[in-house]
Amino acid sequence: MKKIVFFVLSAVMLGFTACSSCGGNNVQPALVIESETDSLYMINDSTIGDLQTFVFEGLMPTDDGFEGSTLLTVQTVDLNEDGSYTVHTNYVDGSGKQNATYDSGETIVLIGMPNDSTAVIYELVSYGNTPKTRLKMNSDSSFVKLNSQMQPASKDPKHILTHKKQ
User: Fold this and answer.
1) 104: Cβ–Cβ under 8 A, 6 or more apart, which residues?
2) pLDDT in tens, 94-128
3) Domain map (residue ranges) of the chain
4) CB neighbours of residue 11 within 10 Å
5) pLDDT at res. 159
6) What is the DSSP code (8-state) at residue 94?
7) Tell me, what's the pLDDT at 96?
8) Each residue of 55-101: pLDDT tens digit?
Protein backbone atom coordinates (compact mmCIF):
# COMPACT_ATOMS: atom_id res chain seq x y z
CA MET A 1 0.00 0.00 0.00
CA LYS A 2 2.76 2.43 0.93
CA LYS A 3 4.71 1.61 -2.25
CA ILE A 4 1.63 2.28 -4.40
CA VAL A 5 0.93 5.59 -2.64
CA PHE A 6 4.58 6.59 -2.98
CA PHE A 7 4.60 5.61 -6.67
CA VAL A 8 1.40 7.55 -7.43
CA LEU A 9 2.67 10.59 -5.54
CA SER A 10 6.03 10.42 -7.37
CA ALA A 11 4.30 10.10 -10.76
CA VAL A 12 2.04 13.09 -10.01
CA MET A 13 5.02 15.19 -8.90
CA LEU A 14 7.01 14.19 -12.00
CA GLY A 15 4.05 15.08 -14.23
CA PHE A 16 3.64 18.42 -12.46
CA THR A 17 7.32 19.23 -12.95
CA ALA A 18 7.12 18.34 -16.65
CA CYS A 19 3.97 20.46 -17.18
CA SER A 20 5.30 23.49 -15.34
CA SER A 21 8.55 23.46 -17.31
CA CYS A 22 6.78 23.41 -20.70
CA GLY A 23 4.78 26.51 -19.91
CA GLY A 24 1.39 24.78 -20.09
CA ASN A 25 -1.45 25.27 -17.70
CA ASN A 26 -0.32 25.22 -14.10
CA VAL A 27 -2.55 22.44 -12.86
CA GLN A 28 -2.07 21.70 -9.20
CA PRO A 29 -1.75 17.97 -8.53
CA ALA A 30 -4.11 16.40 -6.07
CA LEU A 31 -2.22 15.32 -2.98
CA VAL A 32 -2.89 11.88 -1.66
CA ILE A 33 -2.70 11.98 2.12
CA GLU A 34 -2.34 8.73 3.93
CA SER A 35 -4.28 8.30 7.13
CA GLU A 36 -2.46 7.84 10.42
CA THR A 37 -3.89 4.36 10.80
CA ASP A 38 -2.11 3.26 7.61
CA SER A 39 1.20 4.65 8.80
CA LEU A 40 3.87 2.58 10.42
CA TYR A 41 5.80 4.45 13.06
CA MET A 42 9.25 3.21 13.95
CA ILE A 43 11.21 4.10 17.02
CA ASN A 44 14.62 5.38 16.05
CA ASP A 45 16.52 4.83 19.29
CA SER A 46 20.23 4.63 18.64
CA THR A 47 20.88 3.20 22.11
CA ILE A 48 18.93 -0.04 21.56
CA GLY A 49 21.43 -2.88 21.76
CA ASP A 50 24.23 -0.62 23.03
CA LEU A 51 26.03 -0.95 26.34
CA GLN A 52 24.27 1.20 28.95
CA THR A 53 25.69 2.52 32.23
CA PHE A 54 23.47 2.61 35.33
CA VAL A 55 24.70 4.33 38.49
CA PHE A 56 23.39 3.69 42.01
CA GLU A 57 24.49 5.42 45.20
CA GLY A 58 23.68 5.39 48.87
CA LEU A 59 24.61 3.82 52.20
CA MET A 60 25.23 0.12 52.49
CA PRO A 61 26.43 -2.06 55.36
CA THR A 62 29.98 -3.28 54.81
CA ASP A 63 31.15 -6.84 55.44
CA ASP A 64 33.06 -5.47 58.47
CA GLY A 65 29.82 -4.31 60.09
CA PHE A 66 30.21 -0.61 59.29
CA GLU A 67 28.15 1.73 57.17
CA GLY A 68 29.70 2.79 53.90
CA SER A 69 28.96 5.43 51.31
CA THR A 70 28.68 3.29 48.18
CA LEU A 71 28.72 4.00 44.45
CA LEU A 72 27.68 1.05 42.25
CA THR A 73 28.12 1.30 38.49
CA VAL A 74 26.52 -1.40 36.31
CA GLN A 75 27.25 -1.70 32.60
CA THR A 76 24.80 -3.82 30.63
CA VAL A 77 22.58 -3.68 27.56
CA ASP A 78 19.46 -3.73 29.76
CA LEU A 79 19.22 -3.37 33.54
CA ASN A 80 17.57 -6.80 33.75
CA GLU A 81 20.40 -8.57 31.89
CA ASP A 82 23.84 -9.78 32.92
CA GLY A 83 26.72 -7.31 32.64
CA SER A 84 29.64 -5.97 34.62
CA TYR A 85 29.96 -3.77 37.69
CA THR A 86 32.29 -1.63 39.78
CA VAL A 87 31.72 -0.73 43.44
CA HIS A 88 33.45 2.05 45.38
CA THR A 89 32.78 2.16 49.13
CA ASN A 90 34.12 4.71 51.62
CA TYR A 91 33.65 4.20 55.34
CA VAL A 92 35.11 4.98 58.74
CA ASP A 93 35.96 1.97 60.90
CA GLY A 94 35.57 1.65 64.70
CA SER A 95 38.94 3.30 65.39
CA GLY A 96 38.08 6.36 63.28
CA LYS A 97 40.29 5.29 60.35
CA GLN A 98 39.03 6.21 56.88
CA ASN A 99 38.78 3.16 54.58
CA ALA A 100 38.00 2.80 50.90
CA THR A 101 37.28 -0.38 48.98
CA TYR A 102 37.01 -1.05 45.28
CA ASP A 103 35.63 -4.15 43.59
CA SER A 104 34.68 -5.09 40.05
CA GLY A 105 33.36 -8.13 38.27
CA GLU A 106 30.34 -9.56 36.53
CA THR A 107 26.67 -9.11 37.35
CA ILE A 108 24.39 -12.10 37.10
CA VAL A 109 20.68 -11.35 37.22
CA LEU A 110 18.61 -14.00 38.98
CA ILE A 111 14.85 -14.18 39.22
CA GLY A 112 13.26 -15.49 42.41
CA MET A 113 14.24 -16.19 45.98
CA PRO A 114 12.64 -17.95 48.95
CA ASN A 115 9.18 -16.44 49.64
CA ASP A 116 9.32 -14.25 46.48
CA SER A 117 9.36 -15.96 43.11
CA THR A 118 9.37 -12.65 41.19
CA ALA A 119 12.25 -10.94 43.03
CA VAL A 120 15.09 -9.66 40.86
CA ILE A 121 18.44 -10.43 42.46
CA TYR A 122 21.76 -9.05 41.30
CA GLU A 123 24.66 -11.31 42.13
CA LEU A 124 27.94 -9.41 41.98
CA VAL A 125 30.67 -11.94 41.15
CA SER A 126 34.05 -10.36 41.78
CA TYR A 127 36.98 -10.77 39.40
CA GLY A 128 39.06 -11.14 42.59
CA ASN A 129 38.58 -13.69 45.33
CA THR A 130 36.07 -11.73 47.40
CA PRO A 131 32.77 -13.45 48.27
CA LYS A 132 29.71 -12.84 46.11
CA THR A 133 27.47 -9.94 46.99
CA ARG A 134 23.73 -10.20 46.41
CA LEU A 135 21.47 -7.21 45.97
CA LYS A 136 17.68 -7.32 45.70
CA MET A 137 16.11 -4.83 43.31
CA ASN A 138 13.09 -3.02 44.70
CA SER A 139 10.16 -1.89 42.55
CA ASP A 140 11.65 1.64 42.34
CA SER A 141 14.94 0.23 40.93
CA SER A 142 16.78 0.70 44.21
CA PHE A 143 18.91 -2.07 45.72
CA VAL A 144 19.08 -3.65 49.18
CA LYS A 145 22.07 -5.80 50.15
CA LEU A 146 21.19 -9.39 51.11
CA ASN A 147 22.99 -11.68 53.56
CA SER A 148 23.78 -15.37 52.98
CA GLN A 149 20.21 -16.33 54.07
CA MET A 150 18.80 -14.06 51.32
CA GLN A 151 17.45 -11.60 53.92
CA PRO A 152 18.24 -7.86 53.99
CA ALA A 153 21.70 -7.41 55.53
CA SER A 154 20.42 -4.42 57.49
CA LYS A 155 17.02 -3.49 58.89
CA ASP A 156 17.89 0.20 58.61
CA PRO A 157 15.69 1.69 55.84
CA LYS A 158 18.45 4.11 54.84
CA HIS A 159 20.67 1.23 53.71
CA ILE A 160 19.63 1.26 50.06
CA LEU A 161 21.31 2.16 46.79
CA THR A 162 19.10 4.41 44.69
CA HIS A 163 19.29 4.87 40.94
CA LYS A 164 21.08 8.08 40.08
CA LYS A 165 19.49 9.78 37.07
CA GLN A 166 22.02 10.77 34.47
Assistant:
1) 84, 85, 86, 87, 126, 127
2) 888 898 989 999 999 999 998 899 999 999 999 98
3) 2-38, 52-164
4) 11
5) 93
6) T
7) 85
8) 999 999 887 778 899 999 999 988 888 999 999 999 988 888 898 98
User: Which is nearest to 107 in space by CA: 140, 141, 77, 65?
Assistant: 77
Report the C-alpha gap between 68 and 48 in whole angstroms: 34
Q: Round to whole Å and give the CA distance between 14 and 89.
A: 67
- DSSP code per residue over 59-92: EEE-TTS-EEEEEEEEEESSTTS-EEEEEEEEEE
Candidates 101, 95, 16, 86; CA nearest to 53 is 86
CA 37 – CA 19 distance, rounded (Å): 33
What is the domain class of 52-164 according to CATH?
mainly beta
Distance CA 74, CA 103 (A): 12
